[in-house]
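About this split. The held-out portion is used to measure sequence recovery: a designer receives only the structure tokens and must propose an amino acid at every position. Recovery is the fraction of positions where the proposal matches the reference. Here is one held-out target exactly as it appears in the evaluation file.
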């Protein structure tokens, strides 16, 4: 049987951009910027992108494109038998992410329904917004139901395969996402105190930056680019070998970054124009924004559009977190795609249930003060993703060999490399030294070595 492949370069770009653009861009990035000194954080984030995020992103897609197979067998082909464990680990990471990501995205979908029903723009006091949110979060079936519906949405796209499902789905959802985002930015910019929001966003406050901020910027770069969890290797494996990887991947980084910044512009112009504070953390989405929507004309449509935007962004990401396991079941176990999709989706749904219940029924069931959700989130984001990322760059930079890998990277991209000869030095330096070293540093600090 012929292996699946993308129908076009644009299809690949939108699918990977769909994976990258998610909750981390529209929810996490704005509140991180709000906490950590506005533009100072953004500059730090750019440095992380250039030195670690982008090279690791390219390394993973390259592994996939060169081997044309799932992460398990891709790692094995390039590194030998033992490396297959590394590939398997990234697939497991993607699966774990898919489980709690869907639980969280379920709340967003639930909020979208609330917005559509007209329940999110009529608050007359800030306390009401908080109460409304905690009532929903304290309703166990609410979270699980929307976690289920969200997972059904993701698996129904995956059912149709790589070209007719993932590619076509992203080709519809991503342009829609851009249109909604531009509408929200335009609305935000036209508001009375928009300038204050922009000043906050683009004025760097270096006084709040600490070494820990660097770690946060790095983990943000990794999570938002979908690095370290088999997704990029798998999506890269559907790419034809003659495709120019540099000119295909670079626009994705730009899109992902632009969405993060535009989402922040929309959020902060609206937040400042209603006299609210930008540093509400994760509650920015569920407390601050619905209160802001309640105070502006057109609040109904803004709430509706905003939560639709976040739902779409999350859906295209969820799809990509499940695909590595599906590809593995199809490639390695010879399963039919429909069966693989069903098992992967059902499995991630079941594993996600305790995450969804961690905010109500299982709130008190903690280990070392952390709920099931806290643990799975920590395990995947702080531990397994950096491990997956470092394995990919070490595989490319050392085991496979940076020079050999760069030769493969040049396939389809010789013109780009001729035009910018420094690219060779940049990638060699990053694959071999800079990225592995910096990821290791981050990793050691996460496990508490520098505390
Ligand atoms: N990149 C996604 C985001 O920014 C998250 C994601 C994780 C997607 C893992 C796919 C796989 O929200």
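Reference sequence for scoring:
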């Amino acid at each position: 049987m012929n292996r699946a492949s993308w129908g076009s370069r644009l299809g690949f770009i939108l699918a990977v951009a769909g994976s990258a653009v998610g909750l981390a861009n529209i929810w996490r990035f704005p509140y991180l910027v709000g906490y950590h000194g506005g533009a100072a954080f953004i500059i730090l984030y750019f440095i992380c992108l250039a030195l670690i995020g982008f090279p690791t992103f390219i390394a993973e897609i390259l592994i996939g494109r060169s081997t044309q197979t799932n992460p398990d067998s891709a790692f094995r082909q390039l590194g030998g038998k033992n490396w297959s464990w590394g590939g398997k680990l990234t697939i497991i990471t993607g699966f774990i992410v898919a489980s709690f990501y869907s639980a969280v995205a379920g709340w967003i979908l639930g909020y979208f329904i609330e917005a559509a029903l007209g329940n999110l723009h009529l608050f007359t006091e800030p306390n009401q917004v908080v109460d409304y949110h905690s009532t929903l979060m304290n309703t166990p079936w609410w979270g699980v139901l929307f976690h289920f519906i969200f997972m059904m949405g993701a698996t129904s796209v995956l059912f149709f395969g790589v070209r007719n499902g993932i590619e076509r789905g992203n080709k519809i959802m991503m342009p829609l996402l851009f249109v909604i985002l531009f509408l929200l930015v335009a609305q935000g910019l036209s508001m009375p105190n928009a300038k204050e929001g922009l000043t906050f966003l683009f004025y760097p406050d270096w006084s709040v930056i600490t070494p820990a901020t660097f770690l946060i910027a790095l983990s943000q770069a990794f999570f938002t680019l979908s690095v370290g969890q088999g997704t990029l290797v798998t999506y890269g494996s559907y790419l034809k070998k003659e495709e120019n990887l540099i000119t295909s991947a670079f626009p994705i980084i730009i899109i992902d970054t632009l969405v993060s910044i535009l989402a922040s512009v929309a959020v902060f112009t609206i937040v400042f124009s209603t006299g609210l504070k930008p540093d509400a953390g994760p509650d920015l989405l569920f407390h601050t924004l619905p209160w802001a929507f309640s105070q502006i004309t057109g609040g109904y449509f803004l709430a509706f559009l905003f939560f639709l935007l976040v739902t779409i962004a999350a859906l295209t990401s969820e799809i990509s977190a499940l695909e590595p396991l599906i590809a593995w079941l199809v490639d390695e176990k010879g399963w039919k795609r429909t069966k693989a999709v069903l098992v992967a989706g059902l499995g991630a749904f079941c594993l996600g249930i305790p995450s969804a219940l961690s905010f109500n029924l299982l709130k008190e069931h903690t280990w070392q003060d952390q709920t099931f959700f806290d643990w799975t989130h920590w395990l995947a984001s702080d531990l397994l993703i950096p491990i997956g990322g470092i394995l990919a760059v070490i595989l490319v930079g050392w085991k496979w060999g940076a020079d050999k890998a760069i030769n493969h990277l040049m396939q389809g991209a010789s013109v780009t490399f001729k035009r910018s000869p420094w690219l060779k030095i940049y990638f060699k330096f990053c694959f071999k030294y800079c990225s592995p070293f910096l990821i290791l540093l981050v990793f050691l600090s996460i496990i508490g070595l520098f505390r």
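Annotator remark: The domain at 9-446 is CATH 1.10.4160 (Hydantoin permease).
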